[in-house]
Amino acid sequence: MDKNKKAQNVACPDLKYILMAKIKFEKNYQKSDTLILGSSHMFFGWCGGGVNLTISSQDLYNSYQLYRFANNKMKNLKNIVISFSVFSPGFDLQKTKLGGDCVAYKQIFGIDYQSLKVSTEKGFLNLEREIDKEVRRKLRAKWLLNAITKNPYPKKNVKKNFQTEDVKKRTEGHLKNNVRKPDQMQYFLKLLDETYQNKQKVFVVVTPVMKIFRDCLPPKEQLFKKATETCAKFPHVEFLDFYDCEEFLPNMFLDPDHVNKQGAILLTEKILRHFDTVSI
Known about the structure:
Layout: H1 3-11, H2 15-28, E1 34-37, H3 40-45, E2 51-52, H4 60-73, E3 79-83, H5 101-109, H6 116-121, H7 124-139, H8 142-149, H9 164-179, H10 185-197, E4 201-206, H11 211-214, H12 220-223, H13 225-231, E5 237-241, E6 253-255, E7 258-259, H14 261-272
Helix pairs in contact: 2-5, 4-10, 5-7, 10-13
């Protein structure tokens, strides 16, 4: 592999998925009234209709900015579904090893960097030309069109003999972001406030996780305290907690915190049942 291309892929690991989300948005936004936002938990967790802008590296800042982007174009937007994960309160994409994705968000969706200081320190400005070239190259690739319609779920679930130590390491990272200060909750609050002003319904979803994952973390009341308190301030928001829902059986998971297609069908059905229960 070309060294520059390898560096490019490392710098912006989710470029393909961010680009695919934009292409799918342009195809669907005019005829849809529902917008889906969030990280990989909702990327794998939603299999319904609507405009799906879920991306694995998405933090609350980019969820908010993607809402603004979509709201400017979707004239019939009524429902917003957004996942809220253990790591969501403090996860700040620009400061992580996935930070190069911020360049893709900027080049593809026009989302400004959250912090000019951080983006300069991380060298994002130097990446912009290379990312732009890579986007144009991918748009010419035939495989991209096939990838857009491809089933995102692996043909087989990952192995079920999850090692406790591996799960602990994963949850430790999630927990660090859960309590990180300063947090990203201001953007969650802005999203809820603007959707209220725009008379749109919001469904904040905590997706299900396996017991081995939950056992490595504090009680959910502690983990999602900020989210529940913020949601309670708004009458147009429904907080849907499936974190420990027993209906999601072990065979409905790809790994300890992501559902497979079977789990996604059940989760989507459960979310859709609430669409007529929220008044605005």
